[in-house]
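HUMAN: You are asked to prepare a plain-text protein record giving the amino acid sequence and the C-alpha cells, both parts labelled.

ASSISTANT:
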Amino acid sequence: MNTYGEVIRNIRTNKGLSQKELYLDIISKSYAIEFEKGNHEITLRLLEQILDRLMMGIDEFFYIYRGYKLSKHDTFTNKYSKAGNNNDLEALFELYQELHQREDLISQVHLAEVRSRIRLMKHFNLTGKFENSVILTEDIETITNYLNNLQSWTLQEIQLFTNTLNYIDYDQRDILFKTLIKSMKKYEAHERGRDVICVMLTNMIYELIMINQISSAEILLENLNNISSPQYQMLFFKIVYKYYNGLIKIKRNSKEEGTKLAQSAIDALYEFGEPYQAKTLESILSQILQ
C-alpha cells in the first residue's frame, strides 16, 4: 500500500499543482520531497491543511488511499442497509456468514444485529407483522451490554442504537437514549451524522407512537422536521415526517385527516420506487387503525 505522501503526490500532480503551491507555509520543501517519497509522516492537523489546498475532504482522501474502497465499517453499513431496505434475506445471510468468521467484539455485536434483522424479516414475510418476540435474548444482551459500557458515543454507536432500538425494552431504551442525546447535538452539522440522527428519530417516533407516548413523539417529530430542512434536500425524512404526523393525528382522534396524511406518504414511497418501505408503513398504519 502506498503511503499518505505518495497518494498526495499522485493527487497533486493530477491536479497540476506544484509542490510550492501545495505545501507553502505548511511544511518545508525538503520535508515535502521526503514526504511524497514515503519517507516522512505528518500529523493529522497538517494533513488536513494539505487536503484543504487540494479542495478535498479527509473522508474522500482515505477512500482514495484505500484504493477507492470503503472502510470496513462503511462496507458493513452499506451492505446491511441495502439488504434491509430491499427485504433481501439472501444478502443478509451472506453478511451473517462473513461476520461469523470474525471473533472481534464489534463483529460479534454486528452479528447479533444482523441475526436479529434476519429473524424479524423472515417473520414479517410470513405474517406481515414485526414482532420483537422472535429476537434472541442473547442478541439483545450483546447489543445492550456493548452500548451500556461506553462513556460516550460516536456515529457507529448512534447507528447501532438506531438499527436495534425497537428490540430493547422501554426502560433500557430510555437510559440509552439519554446517553445518546449528549452526542446527538454534536453531529447535527455533520452531513452523515445528520442522516444517522434522522433515521434514529424516525425509529424512536415509531416506538413512542406504538406505546401511546404521543407528546414525546410530537417533540421528536418536530426535531426531525427541523433537522431534515429543505436546504439539506432530505426528501425521505420529509415523507417520514408527514407519515408520523398522520399517525399522531389518528392517535389524537383525527382519524380521517391522519389516515389521508399517512396514506399520501405511503403513496409517495411507492412513486419513488421503495415498495418494501411502503409496505412496511402500510402494515404499521393497519395496526394503528385496528
Notes: The chain has two domains: 4-65, 72-289. The mean pLDDT is 90. Residues 105-127 form the longest helix (23 residues). The domain at 4-65 is CATH 1.10.260.40 (434 Repressor (Amino-terminal Domain)).
